[in-house]
Amino acid sequence: MEPQNNRLPANLNQAGQEELEIDLIELLYHFLSKWYLLMIGLLVGAGIAGAYTYYRITPKFTATAKLYMVSNSSDTIVDLSDFNIGNSLSSDYRELIRVRPILEEVIEEEELSYTYEQLRRMITISTISDTRILQISVTSTSPAEAMTVANALADKATEEIPVLMDTTKPNIAERAIVPTQKSSPSMKRNVAMGGLIGLLFVAAILTVLFLIDDTMSSAEEVQKKLGIMPLTIIPESEFPGSVSGSKSRRKKKRQRRKRK
Known about the structure:
alpha+beta, Alpha-Beta Plaits, 2 domains, elongated
């Protein structure tokens, strides 16, 4: 027996690709014909996201204090080794500022209602690129509280860390001020995401309705789906007793009366 060839003929593959392309084009035209539904989905999604962001999400504010880290060098001139040592200390400073004893002292002195874990999650410590400046950022729902905690942490860092590390006391380069602009949530980003989700949701519904619609409204669709060309098309308006046919006959009678 000769082995069967499972490959489809080239003309069938080409026809399948053309049919897929035609379907995609038809889907695009379907979207264009329903553009108003897509716009409604976009606006509704953006409106819901904006309303939820405004009424349900509590805004947060971030205050930042800055420390200048120096190495324990007895020389008055800072050389390259001092710069490298200062950079290597940044990772140690980031962890030591958030140790439990320092944070618990800040909670007690400032009379905060947070636990150690809660306060730790509010703190972000980072180093400005190519510098020995350490940023202590505190995020809170209260702008004044964010400033107070950031400055308290900066003060504790200058007091406690030199004792722990036996190094030179860091200097406070900039104290935190009360933030005037919220750091989160972003209204623009949330509205844009909500609008996009609404648009995609409506587009998905339209795509499903397009795919399950198997009605044939033209001779070309009949030929494409059944593979046969219809011999003739009977207009719906000419059926006796149909609504459109009755309207057509009444219109013709009125035209004949006018001629008389």
